[in-house]
Amino acid sequence: MNPNIIEIAYIVAAALFILGIKGLSKPKTAVRGNQLAASGMLVAIVVTLLNSSVVSYEWIVAGAIVGAIIGATLAVKIQMTAMPQLIAALNGFGGGASLAVAAAEFIKSQPASGTLAQLTDHAVGGGMGTFAMIATGAAVFIGAVTLTGSFVAFAKLQELIGGQPKGFPGMKAVTAILLIGSISIIGYLTVDPTQTQLFWVMVAAAFIMGILLVMPIGGADMPVVIALLNSYSGIAAAAAGFVMGNSVLIIAGSLVGASGIILTQIMCKAMNRSLTNVLFGVMAEAGEAMDADEVYAGKVKASSPEEVAMLLETARRVVIVPGFGLAMAQAQHAVRDLGDSLEARGIEVEYAIHPVAGRMPGHMNVLLAEAEVPYDKLKEMDDINPTFEQTDVVIVIGANDVTNPMAREDKGSPIYGMPILNVDKAKTVVVVKRSLSAGFAGLPNPLFAKDNTLMLFGDGKTAILELTKSLSD
Amino acid sequence: MDISIIHVTLFVLAIFLGIELITKVPPTLHTPLMSGSNAISGVTLVGAILAAGHGGNETLINVLGFMAVALATINVVGGFMVTNRMLAMFKRKD
């Protein structure tokens, strides 16, 4: 096929990706946006298959069949509560794909396969040119870090390994050495691009670095990590685009890279922490300073579903605050039923969504959408915070740190300055929780001991079901 | 002018465009945005097809090409399908 036609088709594909992301700016246009992006992908794939340098199809077909089966199965079977794990895995696969593409180009460019090398613009028989080598190094390095880093994130989210930060003395130094070593190898390869062994050493170093980067990050910071790995997978794709000299790869990769960076920033801001602070964990050590017994002693009031139901009967406005516990308990449908029966009594019901509630950006919104809660009832933190004073009852389900008033009041607290949902300003706060155990931040929550707080101990789903039942009795 | 310069230009402009586009996506759609952008980053499939279809018989390149196609296809197929599944839930109550 004429190379110019291929390039034009790639620009069309890139335009469809851009229109697709634009569609995601409103829930109403989002489905169409996703379809536009998918059709852009189809255009890009079809013209690539017609490219004259593609001469054999058996490996392509085999890979596509395997990938399509796995991808479709994952997409259909995955539970909405497990979405963070799926995104983590997809980030890793994206990184792995860019790694494999760039590595294949590197091997192709080696003198041993000289005749093949002429097939690409960059290869010059004696190895890669400087620009192509730097791009290859970047794609391989970032791709490998994304692959193993996402694997660790997946294992933490799936609870194959514990969510708490893990590390060993001198870990940061090891990470730094791996980083400097990898950059030095890429630098050396630009001078002598035939050193394949060094190339694989760099890949191994990047694999280890990916693991070391994510291991020390705790469960509470997973939204940041997922967003960041999302960004890495995009940047790796863009770097692979430089290697192949392919415009659509560069554009799409940069769009995804930018998307991940912005989500990372939003998450960091919502936790009042810098990215460096999240990645290199200053917080983990400061957590145990406050004594939980002292905060709670004699002040925590346990309640019953019947008592809470009586409160709700006289309420005019109720706000529900979901957290990761809602996902853990699969309580989204039970919550919607409770909301429905409250509304049937003429009570105003809204949902307060903290930006880092759950384990990935927007996680709570998806869960509540699954339970068919209309999205205009989901309120962002800044919109709902001024309304808590006019709220009769707030029901907090499995959320902890995002409601902790210490973030507002205690200057010595590790979470001081983090924007929170001011649920304690409401007339009554009902906290549905298994026990008084601390949240991800490892801190006691003085909210539980406030005069206007009632604790409803138990599994989130059971407690909400009992509450709805008491309300209808 | 070197073609690489044009590619760097594309990269820089696309980053700025990406930032403009993404800041307009509301928080309620951030999860579908992530899965959707995962699907878009599966465009590495284009590079993977070129690597896997080069027609040589060097095993390492073929295996890498196969892996790249398989992984990128998981992203493309899985990403777009799961995004569609999520977005359909948002649309339902219009």
From TrEMBL, chain A:
Q: Could you list the residue ranges that cross the membrane?
A: 6-24, 36-53, 59-76, 127-152, 173-191, 197-217
Reading the lineage from the top rank, the first entry is: Bacteria
Name the UniProt key words of this record, in alphabetical order. Answer: Cell inner membrane, Cell membrane, Membrane, NAD, NADP, Translocase, Transmembrane, Transmembrane helix
| Gene3D superfamilies xrefs | TPP-binding domain (3.40.50.1220)
- Reply yes or no: does the keyword Transmembrane apply: yes
Q: Which SUPFAM superfamilies match?
A: DHS-like NAD/FAD-binding domain
Which Enzyme Commission numbers does its entry carry?
Answer: 7.1.1.1
Q: Which GO terms describe its cellular component?
A: plasma membrane
Q: Name one GO molecular function term.
A: proton-translocating NAD(P)+ transhydrogenase activity
Function of the molecule: The transhydrogenation between NADH and NADP is coupled to respiration and ATP hydrolysis and functions as a proton pump across the membrane.
Q: What is this protein called?
A: NAD(P) transhydrogenase subunit beta
Which organism was this protein described from?
Answer: Pseudomaricurvus hydrocarbonicus
Tell me the organism's taxonomic lineage.
Answer: Bacteria, Pseudomonadati, Pseudomonadota, Gammaproteobacteria, Cellvibrionales
From TrEMBL, chain B:
Single GO biological process annotation from the record: NADPH regeneration
Q: Which residues form the signal peptide?
A: none
This enzyme's EC code(s): 7.1.1.1
Q: Pinpoint the NAD(P) transhydrogenase alpha subunit C-terminal domain residues.
A: 8-92
Instruction: Please classify the protein's predominant subcellular localization into one broad category.
Output: membrane
Q: Which domain of life is it from?
A: Bacteria
Q: Where in the cell is it found?
A: Cell inner membrane
Q: Does the keyword Magnesium apply?
A: no
Q: What is this protein called?
A: proton-translocating NAD(P)(+) transhydrogenase
What is the organism of origin for this protein? Pseudomaricurvus hydrocarbonicus
